[in-house]
Amino acid sequence: xxxxxxxxxxxxxxxxxxxxxxxxxxxxxxxxxxxxxxxxxxxxxxxxxxxxxxxxxxxxxxxxxxxxxxxxxxxxxxxxxxxxxxxxxxxxxxxxxxxxxxxxxxxxxxxxxxxxxxxxxxxxxxxxxxxxxxxxxxxxxxxxxxxxxxxxxxxxxxxxxxxxxxxxxxxxxxxx
Length: 176
Ligand SMILES: Nc1ncnc2c1ncn2[C@@H]1O[C@H](COP(=O)(O)OP(=O)(O)OP(=O)(O)O)[C@@H](O)[C@H]1O
What we know:
- The protein is an alpha/beta fold.
- 49% of the residues lie in helices and 19% in strands.
- It has a domain at 11-25 and 79-157: P-loop containing nucleotide triphosphate hydrolases (Rossmann fold), CATH 3.40.50.
- A 5-stranded parallel β-sheet has the order 2-5-1-6-7, sandwiched between helices. The chain has a two-stranded antiparallel ribbon with strand order 3-4.
- A hairpin with a 4-residue loop joins strand 3 (49-53) and strand 4.
């Protein structure tokens, strides 16, 4: 267990695919000079996977490879990680866990724009309706570090940016 004190916090942004994790994470990272890790892209670029799942058209992510790849960087702090799953990351990595929520009608439109196959649309919509990602986060992290935010409109995105900015500012004042 690594208890080195970080000078900057680490933030996890999670939510059902298409809720806007990467859009939010990239702006927040840019504004605060944090490193952004979009796990799905990282897995592809660094080949941290075990091949391609042709049914769901995504890579079989290799969790151990991802954890090994990120560990040293996460320990230093100043990272924004975005991924639809949260339970397999070490709890100690994160100071704030943001769960994005979107209305299913809006999600449906986003999936169609992406050209998702029907089974993938159905699975992801069910995931949002059943609050799978929110429950996973609640089972994996302390309630006091979890923030649930709506992500339907561009105004939501801007408001979420400032919520996280305020939180980061507050963390830096308390911890440095
Ligand atoms: N708050 C928002 N308001 C309107 N459109 C949004 C919002 N957030 C994201 N979008 C749009 O929705 C689409 C999906 O966003 P994004 O790729 O950031 O989602 P994601 O959660 O990272 O998806 P995935 O898990 O599949 O990587 C993009 O076209 C993006 O521009």
